[in-house]
Specification:
Elements (H helix, E strand, L loop, with lengths): L2 E3 L1 H6 L3 H12 L3 E4 H8 L6 H13 L1 E3 L3 H13 L4 H12 L3 E3 L14 E2 L4
Parallel strand pairs: 1-2, 1-4, 2-3, 4-5
Helix pairs in contact: 5-6
Length: 123
């Protein structure tokens, strides 16, 4: 099953205690990310240099899905239904429109969305 990785999964990969748990998932060719993941994970103004370098290299290896008009329109529709962050709405819209499972540690943020398959890959 192809999957979209939420930003928190990539951020966990920068933590030594979580790396071994999420690294195989990130390396799997069926794992994709959105441009919003790049923004959320690299956009932190105090990102440590090692984390930045790791994430930049990771994004070069992964398929990064662009945020297009259809995704924005679906994200707007989702945000009109319930309060949610723009990032979460874009993640959900991207997964829905591309028929992808959404892997996130924050299942509760997405469980209300009909048709969205949400999985927490971290035990």
């Amino acid at each position: 099953m192809r999957r979209l990785l939420d930003s928190n999964i990539l951020i966990y990969a920068t933590q030594p205690s979580m790396f071994s748990v999420v690294a195989p998932l990130i390396a799997d060719p069926d794992s994709l990310v959105s441009d919003i993941t790049r923004l959320e994970s690299l956009g932190f103004h105090r990102i440590p240099l090692n984390d930045k370098l790791y994430l930049e290299a990771t994004f070069k290896k992964m398929t990064v899905l662009p945020i297009d008009k259809a995704i924005i329109n679906k994200a707007i529709e989702l945000r009109q239904q319930r309060k949610m962050s723009a990032g979460d709405a874009i993640h959900a819209a991207t997964a829905l429109l591309n028929c992808l499972e959404l892997n996130t540690r924050n299942e509760a943020d997405f469980n209300w969305i009909a048709g969205l398959n949400v999985v927490n890959p971290i035990p």
